[in-house]
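Let us practice reading a record.
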Amino acid sequence: MNAVEIEEALSDLATQPFDPVEFPFSFLASLGNKELTLKRLRKGDTNASDVPGGLLQRSNIHLATCGEGKVGRTLLLLRNSPKTMQAKAKYILATDGVTLEVEDLGSGEVLACDFPRFADHFAFFLSLAGISTVKEIKENPIDVKATGRLNKLYVELLKNNPDWATDARRPDMNHFMARLVFCYFAESTDIIHGNKVFTRTVEPMTEPDGSNTHTVLETIFKAMNTPKTERAAAKLPGWTERFPYVNGGLFSGNTDVPNFTRTARSYLLRAGELTWSQINPDIFGSMIQAVADDEERGSLGMHYTSVPNILKVLNPLFLDDLRAQLEAAGDNKAKLLNLRKRMSRIRVFDPACGSGNFLVIAYKQMRVIEAEINRRRGEPDLRTEIPLTNFRGIELRNFPAEIARLALVIAEFQCDVLHRGQQEALADVLPLDSDSWITCGNALRLDWLSICPPTGKGVKLSSDDLFDIPKDQAEIDFANEGGETYICGNPPYLGSKWQTDEQKSEMAAIFDGRIKNWKVLDYVAAWFIKASDYGTKTTASASFVATNSICQGQQVSALWASILSSGSEIVFAHTSFKWANLASKNAGVTVVIVGISNHPPKTRQLTTISNNGELIVKDVENINPYLIAGPNVIIEARTSALSELPEMVRGNSPTDGGHLLFEPSELPSLGLSAHETLSFVRPFIGSRELISGSRRYCLWIEDDAVESALEVQSIRSRVEKVRSFRLTSGKASTVKAANWPYRFDERKALPTKPTLCVPVISSESRPFLPVDLLPSGTVVSNKAFMLSGDTLWPFSIICSRMNLVWVASVCARMRTDYSYTNTLGWNTLPVPALTEQNKADLTECAEDILLARESHFPKTIADLYDPDDVPQDLRRAHEKNDEVLERIYIGRRFRNDTERLERLFDLYTKKIAEQAKLKKKGAKAK
């Protein structure tokens, strides 16, 4: 369940007659617990409560109902219950149906309220459903409630007006919903003068069955689009006089309203009961954008991005500089005036704006700075000089684009109320400005310079309709001299595997002819290229949230060489962190924030998160595409090692439908003799097996043993299944491999000596990169890499801290886990020339690590390298290994990873230069 669904379920529960026996189960059901879970709790199988009337859900909540007036005493019993601690309950809750009290045992936060009102505090309970609650939603739940009410209305209207769900009418439906949002907000803020005028007009004038509701709404909308002086001529009824003239295009054009049912009318009136003046436009806008999207409606209420996360983009982009200028100006009125004029010319442009939350937050923050300027200058009532038209966006979908405009209008009014007062705000809010500043279109197809040109403070439109976008929107003519432009946002990420044909076509239009291997790039990369192109025509800075993969592995060489060659550089960055939403059990996507500019400052700001979660902000001379303080080096994949390192190759690829592989438990079912097992069965090790210690086996049939192997019925049966699997493949190379179904699609020679094995995927939480020494005859899967174990000094390098920080920087990631490759992780690793004594010392370190592991048998690599529980002798062995290797690099231990990476990038640069020099010298000799 999402936050909106939980709020609705709890609200319904709060209105039901209190049943002390059923309430605990109904409460848990409202939080998304499955019926099977509740059934077990009812039977008592999993309910270990020792409190009368109690229900205990392990690792979640201990709650109880009680007699009237005994809530406090019952809560104390729950708190002191040994079972509460044993079950690791996070919350305790007690209610008698009159009052309800709940306590968060982790934070100590307590909630006490009248029982019928407990759903108003639904955000307090979201963590019980696995949803991390953001501060703004916990303090102001109106946005979630409003989203839920409008969603119910939207779905009900479409159900009974199917023609409004067509592509032709859907924009009308979306426009209708935007009008409703404005009406609800306006009647709660006195924009429509009086107490709830809109809702209190609709309720008595519409039939209970909803039959004439559309007619009443059409009349109201028509009135709000007609100046008061023209209403008599328009023959509008007298009761419409209470509604103001709005303009701005919000109520112009088609005034049709869908037909209402009794249920739809009820939802309409229920939404009007909310206090819409408390709406937070960035929260509400983000949440409601899923309402009008059939595919996204399941994620209703999940889209909200917290203000702190948005400010991670906006602060270093330009807000920090404005605040610094404000601080430097002090009370100097001339300097304050100059800063205010500068702000009036700043343009903020989000070319993937959704419902406008980045633009709304930027506007609000700038208004705070402007208000302080006005206070210091003694002009607190001065009307804002920051025009909404300076906050521009592009949004692909119609409904979010409408909501983005409306959100900015609401934000402007709320800022006026906050900084100038209610009376001044009301005096200036209507009529709405008709300038249109949000474009509904494809950001990758449109010319950004035509949407947000480098000059122009005002806008001259070929249409005077705020909400009806002219088809030649991109041809808008701008006048007057402008100021700075800041591009920002959170574009869609989409790795190459998840892009639609249309999106691939958009990428091709941008990248073809300029980037050779662009098909490896995430979709978000196109926004960086468009921003850097924009920067070639004007002075601008841009910052986007992006998947961290664009700063790792092969995407770096594909993307950043082009950006850097355009004249843009990385001016600030925030390294990998989780960009979470409000989804239940949300793991979040791992992102980075990267700011680029064609007029870089002398120092750049690099933000990282330490192992203990501390935010570290550093000023550095340069940030390279790997988001490391260092020169702009781009690591290219190599087919051979840059340093004197042994060859590392990927393991064997079965492509067999699982028929050549089997678990240990399946081995007896093959019915093989001891000789046949020895001849045709081999241990099979990949990332999972190496790390977890689990085992699998495979059929390994050499070419000269095929005839004898196929004499075994169980083997012949599996081989035929492999043939059938490969023949049905849509991939030509796999079909070809049906000619040798007895063996792996791609295989290396069976190792006759011990093999070093490195997993492809491994957790970033481990302090060292996993590597192990496998016995001869072990088949390594394509989920791992292998190299000869003849000597052990490479083992020492692979599991060193030096190698780990290199891999973490230059290889790709699977979320935050390492995705290792030989071409990027091993072949590019810069290692100083090693003497025979160096190799002997490193070999001894490798042996010490293996011996320390062996002393803890049967613990697996996963067990041994649990970051919180690495055995002391194993940790000491690794520390010795790091010291020996790092002394080879610089004669001492490195102070930190930053220093390690700086040395590695420096050494890489020198080795590449040396190779280029030798290559050039060799060419001359020829």
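A brief commentary: The first helix runs from residue 3 to 15.
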